[in-house]
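Lab meeting tomorrow. Look over both lines:
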Amino acid sequence: MLRLKSCGLGEGGGRALAEALRLNSTLKSLDIRLNDMGEGGGRALAETLRLNTRITSLNLWNNDLREEVQSALGQAWGDRGFLRLWQRLANQPRKG
């Protein structure tokens, strides 16, 4: 398990992490919530997840991922395990 919760990765850090994960052969669980990775970091991670199927638990909550990026991540992920995006809920304005 690698926990990088709220480390301020941003888009550049998200891309760098995605590149490093391409070489991963042992990591199975990753928590990178609250890092504002944005579109660039999210797309880079989606591409990596197509290649690296060792990761079976991934928490991406609150990373400023647009719906298109969430869709790309979901497609890359498939049905291999626990994926937490929850982005739409986290970014919706509160009612009342």
